[in-house]
Prior knowledge:
By secondary structure, this protein is an alpha+beta fold. It has one domain (about 10-250): Creatinase/methionine aminopeptidase superfamily (Creatine Amidinohydrolase, Alpha-Beta Complex), CATH 3.90.230. The protein is built from four helices and 15 strands.
Amino acid sequence: xxxxxxxxxxxxxxxxxxxxxxxxxxxxxxxxxxxxxxxxxxxxxxxxxxxxxxxxxxxxxxxxxxxxxxxxxxxxxxxxxxxxxxxxxxxxxxxxxxxxxxxxxxxxxxxxxxxxxxxxxxxxxxxxxxxxxxxxxxxxxxxxxxxxxxxxxxxxxxxxxxxxxxxxxxxxxxxxxxxxxxxxxxxxxxxxxxxxxxxxxxxxxxxxxxxxxxxxxxxxxxxxxxxxxxxxxxxxxxxxxxxxxxxxxxxxxxxxxx
Length: 258
């Protein structure tokens, strides 16, 4: 294993810059989410994200990252994350996860949500409601002085009451000038001692919750992660600042109305 990297503490100026990046990322995400409609292709949504990013005078934090070929991650139904925009036409009843990251003035904003399309099933609706709430259960533990394990464990502890599974192969992460910084932020309580949260830490908290098994596999495009059993998956994410008091969501947006 390589040398463990330290968790970066952001200065007041760093935080000001990250608020800007977070607000931009949220705006792009919300506007792109509204474009997810029956009859639209996922490539058209991705192209729109590219236009919005340029409008804000920034760039996609994902495009070209480790070779990723798209502006956003757009994942449909049993696709968990890292879906690539294509000629796939969005259908009535689909749920579409969209993950948007931007780099503005050298700083990253990262956020995601899962969009219900048309008349979704009650099972899909329940999954979205629980997954989004699990994000807020986790954020409620994003407080200075608490161990990171409490924040991570809150997700699985909440969703398992509804019979859902967390994806253990994929995790949230610290974020700042780099898209992925220390620490890793799994959606389950890790074994052993974890760092104590401190003011100035910024975390991308992102529950990825499956209707069935938590096991996943990668498609032949080497990017798209899907559920092993073909059942639905949902994904919600916020960039969150640890403060001396209440956690601050740097990617604010209204909650889903279902």
